User: What shape does this take?
Amino acid sequence: MSHRRLRSQDWFDNPDHADMTALYLERFMNYGTTPEELRSGRPIIGIAQSGSDINPCNRHHLDLARRVRDGIRDAGGIPIEFPSHPLFENCKRPTAALDRNLAYLGLVEILYGYPLDGVVLTTGCDKTTPSALMAAATVNIPAIVYSGGPMLDGWHEGELVGSGTVIWRSRRKLAAGEITREEFLEAALDSAPSVGHCNTMGTASTMNALAEALGMSLTGSAAIPAAYRERGQVGYRTGRRAVELVNEDIRPLDILTRPAFLNAIRVNAAIGGSTNAQPHLAAIARHAGVELKPEDWQDYGYDIPLLANVQPAGKYLGERFHRAGGVPAIMWELLKAGKLDGGAPTVTGATMADNLEGREAVDREVILPYDRPMQERAGFLVMKGNLFDFAIMKMSVISDAFRQRYLMEPGHEGVFEGKAVIFDGSEDYHARINDPALDIDERTILVIRGAGPLGWPGSAEVVNMQPPDHLIRKGITSLPTIGDGRQSGTADSPSILNASPESAAGGGLAFLRDGDTIRIDFNQGRCDMLVDDAELEKRKAEGLPKVPDDATPWQRLYRQTVTQLSDGGTIAGADEFRDIARRPPRH
Ligand code: FES
Ligand code: MG
Assistant: This one.
């Protein structure tokens, strides 16, 4: 039992509002709760339920919540489960990214306006994790992340097939005429053999790994497959720990410090994590009031080697990764190499270093030692130039063939010049990519714009554009691509993405024209269109490319408030919200 006065007591046991207490209490009685329970001074722990039929990646949380409730009860708390706004990556049109800030807003209102002392954040599918952490940072009541875990490994015709990744790879095989549409579908369905989120190191597994790296979930919990018995067991422990967090008054902002974010950036490189981690971590940091600069990705992440042999950068999937030691084994390698701040506090109550002590990997095929990695320098390269102020490139998915073709030209190592072919949005790309008139060859750079937070709206995962079928049939399976959108965390494409400011916000991509030469200098981290100033001024006078009108009320509100991907695509003013949420609710 807690000896401090709890937040929930402002509702249920407040002499200043004694007349309101009856109203606050009575409807909780109608499912059998008693006034004694709610007035006992025991912590009331919310379970933010992200699972539903419309969010299948998280749906098993509906069942797992039973074990979370058991843990909360056994530790002396009272569970109250409530739904959060669904965020299903694969089906929400025009993109689930549009809804991340909406889910954030909804969760903030619930955590702020109801009698909750702490919260278990159930996470899984891509944006469910960052939206929950953003809200926890704003309201700053004790909070702990409980991932639903990845699906079991997918197998198709004797080969591992990972969710998402199988789509991008099969799409190339389909274009090359190697498989039929029916075989495409079969492989995709086989990649999803059980409950859980994507079993590749896509955005879901990445963001849950980073929640653990930030110190916001129990050690070793992120990677446990959804269907394993350990998943329910760690749910029970998470529920227990949520109550203790309230008793010990450990809050998200005690944990979400700059060292924790830098740890997360390093872990992201070592696991070959999703490029979506960049805007999501930026958003969480902003809501937490932590300064995280776009260049931090290069300064702290770029030099970190790839240690996880997991798709899309590697070979294996979630089950093998978990059995090899999961996130703690990766972090233990980084800690031993002096690449982690071990003093960072965590929800366990111990430091990160204490949590990780001795978590040696047990399968070196899947988690490699720091000094014998899959690949050196596997983090994000941060780029700028006259096309944008900021963009990133994920180095862990750049294939040897691609390096040979574009980065190793004798005398021009690391510098590539090509002609731009531009698409305004993905409909334009799909309609025209196979048009022979475009004359695309292996010196072409594919550019997509109108895909950022304002343009899409929401920012679309479309920069992983594949070459036209005729090139794929010749064995050219990827071309350099640039865009102001994002790309799927499960994609293995060599793309320069998240370009900010986007075309619709007046970024340089808006003034690029078909046939312009683009110079990409990997040594300098620059990307420029070779167009003279007078010509550029002329094009600026022509205005920005058109983007679609708002199609829902939220799209309009979102566009009025959103920042660029370099700033996390948050609602503008995000760094002030936690100060607002310090004002106690009025009764
Ligand atoms: Fe939900 Fe990948 S689509 S986790
Ligand atoms: Mg995605």
In short: Residues 42-153+193-258 form a domain with the Rossmann fold fold (CATH 3.40.50.2300).
